[in-house]
């Protein structure tokens, strides 16, 4: 019976993903950081804004879509980035309600540090994994994300119709 219990817990995908998520957060939030970015999510969102803004205007809804986070979560992250001087919100001429997210000089100054940290952790994650197995892993994780997104949308539709 113990073997079966151990086997079923080995297939507890949600718990494994949660554990890896916590490990990633600890890895990315090293205490030597002097850039006042407190969380991995702040770093990743700032990285996204830094690079996307070179190609196009970036808005809060872009951050929400890219990271599949709720508006309130995105608002909190962006407010902290703004408070710490990494981004500014600039009004858009065509629609005063819209505010584009613009990286500041301070953000530009930490770009390489953030990018280096992300590269380091990505390499660490992929270490010792054959390319073919890594591709399968990515496909499976993307499918899991789609499964969860589809269920969220279904639940929202049910709630909206009640």
Short description:
This is MarR family transcriptional regulator. With 162 residues, this protein is mainly alpha-helical.
What are its keywords?
162 residues, two-stranded antiparallel ribbon, 2 domains, Arc Repressor Mutant, subunit A, mainly alpha
Structure notes:
The chain is mostly helical and 162 residues long. It has two domains: 2-125, Winged helix-like DNA-binding domain superfamily/Winged helix DNA-binding domain (Arc Repressor Mutant, subunit A, Orthogonal Bundle); 128-162. The chain is built from seven helices and two strands. Strands 1-2 form a two-stranded antiparallel ribbon. A hairpin with a 2-residue loop joins strand 1 and strand 2 (95-103). The N and C termini lie far apart (44 Å).
Secondary structure class reads mainly alpha
Strand order of the largest sheet: 1-2
Strand tally, please?
A: 2
- Percent in strands: 5-15%
Task: Please estimate the helix content.
Answer: 55-70%
Question: How would a textbook summarize the main sheet?
Answer: 2 strands, antiparallel
Please identify which CATH superfamily of the largest domain we are dealing with. Winged helix-like DNA-binding domain superfamily/Winged helix DNA-binding domain
- CATH topology heading of the largest domain: Arc Repressor Mutant, subunit A
Pfam families: MarR_2 (PF12802)
Keywords: DNA-binding, Transcription, Transcription regulation
Domain HTH marR-type: 10-146
Organism: Ruminococcus turbiniformis
């Amino acid at each position: 019976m113990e073997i079966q219990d151990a086997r079923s817990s080995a297939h507890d995908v949600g718990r494994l993903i949660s554990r890896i998520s916590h490990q990633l957060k600890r890895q990315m939030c090293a205490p030597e950081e002097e850039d006042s970015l407190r969380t991995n999510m702040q770093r990743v969102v700032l990285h996204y804004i830094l690079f996307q803004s070179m190609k196009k205007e970036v808005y809060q809804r872009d951050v929400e879509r890219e990271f599949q986070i709720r508006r309130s979560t995105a608002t909190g992250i962006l407010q902290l980035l703004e408070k710490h001087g990494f981004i500014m919100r600039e009004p858009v001429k065509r629609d005063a309600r819209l505010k584009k997210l613009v990286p500041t000089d301070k953000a530009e100054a930490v770009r390489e540090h953030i990018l280096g940290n992300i590269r380091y952790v990505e390499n660490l994650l992929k270490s010792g994994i054959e390319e073919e197995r890594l591709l399968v892993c990515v496909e499976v994780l993307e499918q899991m994300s789609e499964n969860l997104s589809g269920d969220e949308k279904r639940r929202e539709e049910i709630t909206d119709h009640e």
